[in-house]
User: Which sequence fits this backbone?
């Protein structure tokens, strides 16, 4: 099985078998945390279901969760895939294992 755990400002962890990855949280101006977990889940599942590696799936999840906190309400600031990928690029996050 695969497990992903969000840790708020402390980032996130994921494990698949013996592989464990951690990513740092992103510094964003938080307006509301409602929906951040759902956005995190959506990001992780997108990567996982599209064959991305564990690290890239977790990085996307963390970006989606962080970005969603920047607006009031559960979906106002929920990013599109393009927005999340741009956010990761701006934050110099490498997704080399996307297709692993």
Assistant:
């Amino acid at each position: 099985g695969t497990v992903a755990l969000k840790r708020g400002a402390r980032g996130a962890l994921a494990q698949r078998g013996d592989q464990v990855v951690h990513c740092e949280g992103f510094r964003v101006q938080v307006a509301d945390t409602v929906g951040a977990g759902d956005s995190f889940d959506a990001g992780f599942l997108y990567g996982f279901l599209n064959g991305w590696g564990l690290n890239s799936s977790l990085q996307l999840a963390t970006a989606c969760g962080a970005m969603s906190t920047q607006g009031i309400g559960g979906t106002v600031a929920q990013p599109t895939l393009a927005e999340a990928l741009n956010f990761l690029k701006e934050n110099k996050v490498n997704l080399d294992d996307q297709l692993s």
Observations:
- The radius of gyration is 12 Å.
- Residues 54-68 form the longest helix (15 residues).
- The chain has three helices and three strands.
- Residues 43 and 61 are 4 Å apart (CA to CA).
